[in-house]
Amino acid sequence: MTEKFEPSSATAKLAESVLPNKDSQVSSSEKSKTMQKAKGKTAVRRKGKTGTRQSVGITSLQVAILVVFIGGWELGANHGIINKFLFSSPSAVVQILINQFRRGTLMDNVQVTLNETLVGYLIGAIGGSVLGLLLWFSKFIADVSMPFIAAIGSIPVLAVAPMLIIWFGTGFISKVVVAAFSCIVVALIQSYEGTEKVDNDQIELFRSFRASRLQMFTKLIVPASMPWLMVSLKLNVGFALIGAIVGEFISSNAGIGHMIVVAGASFEIGEVLAGVVLVMLLVLAFNLVLGAINGILRKRHLA
Amino acid sequence: MTNTSTTETNPSQPSGVHSAALKEHSKTALEILSVSMTYPGNDAEVLRDISFHADKGEFVTFVGPSGCGKSTLFNIVAGLLAPSSGSVIVDYKENTGSPSDKIGYVLQKDLLLPWRTIRKNVTLGPELSHNRHIDAQQITELFHAYHLHGYEDSYPDQLSGGMRQRAALMRAMLMNPEIILMDEAYKALDYPLKIELESELLDRVKDSGQTVVFVTHDIEEAVTLSDRIYILKAHPGEIVDEMQIHLSCNSNKINERRLAPEFNEYYERIWKTVESGIRQEKR
């Protein structure tokens, strides 16, 4: 059995070692041809069978872990092994969510936090990405401003949030500012780095065709930076939400953060956990939207 | 010995060659005058006193070991890089350090943009330079000639390495450059396709009178394609020999040219020169 599989795994290894630099270092063309053929065949074979079988196995294991965790928690809480006051129980959390939904407070809180996060994200993550891309036009401005940008980026949101609340009031705007602040620097640095990583040979190809700076920016730099941009857009969903909730923690009268703070102050652990669940669901929803955007980009061969 | 090769032990031409003197050869397409290159912040000299020329319609090849500065020389000739000293003269006009629209180039890397279809990649040159309208008929013919018909709307990652390289060549050819620079352009192609495309290239450039400056380490490729060969040594890159190639074969087919009686002699001579350069360096 094992002997049968040896040759194919050997070619797979060989192909893998050739794959990263298949363009640069193969000395004879005929060698490279056979290598590429070997690579193609083994890659297809591995993806076709073992790949899907393995991912099915992983998914079922993940579901099993989740079931055991939640089930154990519920059983433990019901049989007095787990302290309900400190840890609540899954059924209690679900009950709280249902009650809040019936009262209408759940959707109100979600709506408030969602709006803060969305507007903050649009300003911080999208605006920051655009600024980072635009920095490509001037290496001078980029070099001068980078230390300052990095310094601003090193400030924890929590440290400046109280000040931002004082400046922008206790309402919607201050949460938006905090959310935007917590993602703008990451977005800016990521997208600027994306522009710096564009293949120099491709830039020179554009130069040889005597492309203008604007042409180079729109037709090469921006599309080539999209994969890096997507990474920061994904990361920043979390950061924007943290920003909005931190803002709500400090001063607010609505939102998921507000709900958690109030519940925490009155030792309602079940309600705190309900808030946590809502935050997780929000992130999940954001990621689904981003996944769809990523899918569109991939269809256009941009990611 | 039927060849008429000129061996120069000291390749540096008299540094007093001026444009006025150049005009005596009425058909020089490209002239490089004592180009030297040292990258800023790096003491090692990459190129030392390189002088060469290519006549209109001539196929000139550079052969040399790795580290001989082939790519640096290539970038200087393409105008993408300014040399530390020396001049690049394209069609009797000083063109040092700025890209000329008379020069097209093809690298071993195809540099196709993954988000553009093959057609949009091939037509990148006209699109960026505005001044040329894209002739749909010419593009269709081009796709046929390079056996890529039917792949116009495919994306680069759907094509094999050889096909991508052909698309890169089409991208350069669409601009009708007077001089084509090729840096190991066919290295990634499989052998029969490489021979086929090289034969086609010869047909094309002999027909159109385009000048080709080709860089390779493959001596067989150099002998079968070239009218003239320069041999480089490494550290620093210097021209150690120049050789006129005359194969008694009128065909542009590479497999027939390969069988010309003089082939082996040229091959041996180039190999020995390249090898002695490597040996000298090791000592």
UniProtKB/TrEMBL annotation, chain A:
InterPro entries: MetI-like, MetI-like_sf. It is a multi-pass membrane protein. The keyword Electron transport does not apply. The chain crosses the membrane at residues 55-75, 118-138, 144-165, 172-192, 238-260, 272-297. One of its GO terms (biological process) is transmembrane transport. Residues 1-51 are annotated as: Disordered. The keyword Membrane applies. It comes from the Bacteria. Residues 106-290 form the ABC transmembrane type-1 domain. It is found in: Cell membrane. Gene3D superfamilies: MetI-like. One of its GO terms (cellular component) is plasma membrane. Signal peptide: none annotated. Keywords: Cell membrane, Membrane, Transmembrane, Transmembrane helix, Transport. Residues 34-50 have a biased composition (Basic residues). Belongs to the binding-protein-dependent transport system permease family. This is ABC transporter permease. It comes from Bifidobacterium aquikefiri. The lineage of its organism: Bacteria, Bacillati, Actinomycetota, Actinomycetes, Bifidobacteriales.
From TrEMBL, chain B:
Keywords: ATP-binding, Nucleotide-binding, Transport. The keyword Cell wall biogenesis/degradation does not apply. InterPro entries: AAA+_ATPase, ABC_transporter-like_ATP-bd, ABC_transporter_ATP-bind, P-loop_NTPase. PROSITE patterns: ABC_TRANSPORTER_2 (PS50893). GO terms for molecular function: ATP binding; ATP hydrolysis activity. The keyword Nucleotide-binding applies. Pfam families: ABC_tran. Residues 1-16 have a biased composition (Polar residues). This is ABC transporter ATP-binding protein. It comes from Bifidobacterium aquikefiri.
